[in-house]
User: Fold these one by one.
Assistant:
Number 1:
Amino acid sequence: MTDFTDEELALDPNFADRFEQGFRPACQLYLISPPAIGADFADSLAAAFDGGGVAAFQLRLKGLDEDAVARAAEPLQKLCAERDVAFIVNDSMALAKRLGADGVHLGQGDGDPKEARRLLGPSVQIGVTCHDSRHLAMEAGEAGADYVAFGAFYPTTTKETHYRPDPSILGWWTALFELPCVAIGGITADNAAPLVKAGADFLAVSGAVWSHPEGPRAGVAAFEAVLARK
Ligand SMILES: Cc1ncc(COP(=O)(O)OP(=O)(O)O)c(N)n1
Ligand SMILES: Cc1nc(C(=O)O)sc1CCOP(=O)(O)O
Ligand SMILES: [Mg+2]
């Protein structure tokens, strides 16, 4: 543990904690859409945004062709722009380009982050799935990713998963690299604290918000307290 001067501690009682964490900003919520959505999903998304701070929204619709995802995206991308939430497209750099999205999330089989950078330019956010692998994360960073995603930290019914990282991978990452890291997989307001404490910059969450018994607004609001604990 580092020693701090009285002045440093008087200016900011959390100085020691923040110093140990490398002054990383507070952990933020990264909302993932349900795998399938209805015609009124924009209302649910607006309700979720009303619940509290959401930094990014990922449109993750599985099993639809690109034109169908593009049609679904239109009102959602508009809403994200109005609410100052980054609009991220899952899987397809071509669709991200077509929509002028704020970012794209690429899995290990979804294409090369370097190609995405060439296609999308310097200001579009590129995220890469790294499962439980330090090696994949360092590779993604070297390839120019804007964030790396580790998961699945907990069991989830949203997607079949094959990896179960330990939260310590987040602490390892944040101790060595400035690039933000995302934690994903079965995260709820009740089980998120170890991930926030370990250093996650973002919690990527789907089911805990969309299946919250009191609706998506309450689903987002439930994360407020745990996010503040970093
Ligand atoms: C933030 C975030 N992290 C991981 C994933 C998973 O991506 P991928 O491995 O490509 O799996 P699918 O989501 O495409 O089923 C993600 N989408 N977002
Ligand atoms: C899309 C996704 N990717 C994962 C990974 O481990 O890479 S886990 C996952 C599902 C996230 O949804 P929920 O919050 O409902 O578990
Ligand atoms: Mg994918």
Number 2:
Amino acid sequence: MRTEQMKAFKKPFNEKTNGNDPKFSMGSYTWGTPSPNYLRQLSWSEAYHVSLSDILGSGGLCTLRSTMEQFAAKVSELAQKLAEILVEKLGQNYSTFFKETCLQSTCFIRMNRYPTCPISNQMFGLMPHTDSDFLTILHQDHIGGLQLVKDGKWIAVKPNQQALIINIGDLFHVWSNNVYKSVHHRVAANKLQERFSTAYFLCPSYDTVIQSCVEPSAYRKFSFREYRQQVQNDVKCFGYKVGLARFLL
Ligand SMILES: O=C(O)CCC(=O)C(=O)O
Ligand SMILES: [Fe+2]
């Protein structure tokens, strides 16, 4: 998977941006941040953010897409299992909720590349954020740079290529009514070495209503579509994601 990912990023810029190669939907390839207001809001990275509905059943014609499909099949099984365990630990009986709402076709894979950055002390590889999903399964290479907030402090996640990193996302945060915390994370820019990572986002269909599994809920109900829209609008207007604060009751 990583080899195919590296090949995809090696393509000339105009091939990546015109959306024809490697045949993902228009807009899957992104670089930087959509509308930064100042330098520190510009992520020093490029990514393919791919809806699995684009690649499922693509057959063997494109090596990247069929590799992604195989990767997704394995990782989605793991994501489902983890979600089930997390629900069970909450004492909730929603054993089929994730199987029914987070189909493979509604999930996403994001391939990230962080090029070397000559002004690494002024930039992030990826701006601080939380993920807008139920949970994320992340694989990073040996370079390091991922950091997360623990007890109010930014700490580095030691790179380990033999391990997967599991992040709770905003939707589980709401669903568990603040029991599982959506983790703030970011990637430091690196002056000397490029870095790659691959993320699988467990997402529901856009119509799914997100609400806490217990009452009284700290958040108002919203659809996943509404949440994505709000996040996109905020990023466009302010240069950053406001996130769950918008939905607090
Ligand atoms: O590259 C990483 O380690 C983090 C990637 C990430 O947070 C994301 O794609 O949402
Ligand atoms: Fe993330």
Number 3:
Amino acid sequence: MVVLVKPPALDQISLVRSPETGGGGGPAFPGVPAVDFSGPGAALAVVDACERFGFFKVVNHGVPAGVADRLEAEAVAFFARPQAEKDASGPADPLGYGCKRIGRNGDMGWLEYLLLAVDQGSVASPVPSPSLRDAVNEYVGAVRGVAASVLEAVAEGLGVAPRDALSRMVAGAASDRVLRVNHYPPCPLLQRLLDSCAVTGFGEHTDPQLVSVLRSNGTAGLQLALRDGRWVPVPPDRDAFFVIVGDSLEVLTNGRLKSVRHRVVANSLKPRVSMIYFAGPAPAQRIAPLPELLGRGEQGLYRDFTWGDYKKAAYRSRLGDNRLDPFRI
Ligand SMILES: C=C1C[C@]23C[C@@]1(O)CC[C@H]2[C@@]12CC[C@H](O)[C@@](C)(C(=O)O1)[C@H]2[C@@H]3C(=O)O
Ligand SMILES: O=C(O)CCC(=O)C(=O)O
Ligand SMILES: [Fe+2]
């Protein structure tokens, strides 16, 4: 008999079978779709990837590599500071520095992070150092353009007019944008057991916003749930931005694009650093299917709500909950 005893530092963090194959197997995962934003055809490729996986990566996005590299270096320097100094920027509630605790309802992961509010072009939260603030500002200045291009491509690919019908929802002065910088330290305490168990870095969930734009260093750990429930690893790519369809975009498209469950498992040897820009709308924004996407006589699948309503409910939920279920008709 194998008895699993977790070291104290891990005793509130769950283990996952990784990757788990779900029941029955399914068609081979062809890999994460890469959409080239420098050429023609991006809009249709974006919609195809969002319909099939709720996930893709943007290549040739035009953001100079130095912008993300600089934020990554500043983040590494911040997370290397003494714990007491980092704690002075926390606890995250929901913004600020957080360690292991995710949200307010008991979720735990093997990570530390900074959650920062972003206004139209720069960070709106206090940032622990001027050099980190400059790097964050430079980064959000660039990544918000990627989020806008993605949402324009979605609108174009779905035949929604005007082209900025979605992107303008996350570009207004009152829009709710957040930048999250995650650091997953190596987790040597628990080496992979039986070759199939891993420590939860960030538990499985969907993102509540329209889209999330993620960039990570070269350390693996991100996993994606396919539509048939199988989990697949996402190979890291420092040069790309990964795009995650969120719950709000699912509703706006009446379920044609679906939000995707994803999670991160800790690496036993290398640190993972990721930065994720969550593009959310203004609290008063109605989140309802776009009329162009409802066929004649077709009903919306969700009851009427605003982003403010949804966010309030989200912050009362556990990470892994299906937050859209209570809003389905
Ligand atoms: C457990 C939670 C953390 C979270 C708020 C929530 O109550 C449920 C949604 C979580 C999530 C997931 C995506 C993003 O990382 C995040 C910032 C968000 O908008 O929703 C987190 C929230 C958080 O960490 O505060
Ligand atoms: O750190 C990552 O790679 C993903 C984290 C994530 O999904 C999130 O912060 O919502
Ligand atoms: Fe996420």
